[in-house]
Design a protein that fits this description.
Blueprint (H helix, E strand, L loop, with lengths): L2 H21 L1 E2 L2 H23 L4 H24 L1 E4 L4 E4 L2 H24 L10 H22 L10
Antiparallel strand pairs: 1-3, 2-3
């Protein structure tokens, strides 16, 4: 995947996710699982081609990046307001959610630049965008899922 297409896809995903959280949206099981799974599959496929030539430092840097992004995803999931509506579970981001998104994006951009600066010939940092975005959204959605179960709020039933 070319860098420009990867960045555009990443921006589209983030605009859709962040936009839905800022304006509020009903939550279905499908909405929690499909996007992160698709991003993770794309990320693993992209990563598999770059994995063989990666140095130990690049792999450690990627692991650290993933751990931090998962933590930020869990924090965002905890900051989202969940309420019961007649249709089912409704989510709306708070000011903290938006701040955590800004931090997540800044961290992801910073680590991308740092990785390229540290390993200018490495291909791993260019292949991790979908994986890292998928991980942070999956962690956020896992927290929303866990919270909705503990609050006994049923998911919105998807209309066919």
């Amino acid at each position: 995947m070319s860098a420009v297409i990867g960045i555009l896809v990443g921006l589209l995903v983030l605009v859709r996710v962040i936009g839905g959280q800022v304006t509020g949206s009903l939550v279905t099981q499908k909405s929690l699982f499909v996007m992160p799974v698709v991003l993770l599959v794309i990320g693993v496929v992209s990563l598999s081609s770059a994995f063989g030539g990666a140095s130990t430092g690049e792999l450690a840097f990627l692991a650290m990046d993933c751990v931090v992004l998962i933590g930020l995803g869990l924090a965002r999931g905890a900051s989202i307001r969940l309420t019961r509506t007649a249709e089912g579970l409704y989510q709306k981001g708070t000011a903290a959610t938006l701040c955590l998104w800004v931090l997540t994006i800044a961290l992801r951009v910073g680590t991308a630049f740092a990785s390229v600066a540290l390993w200018p010939h490495g291909t791993l940092s260019r292949a991790t965008l979908a994986l890292t975005v998928g991980l942070t959204i999956a962690a956020q959605n896992a927290m929303i899922y866990r919270r909705s179960l503990s609050l006994h709020i049923p998911f919105t039933v998807e209309q066919v």
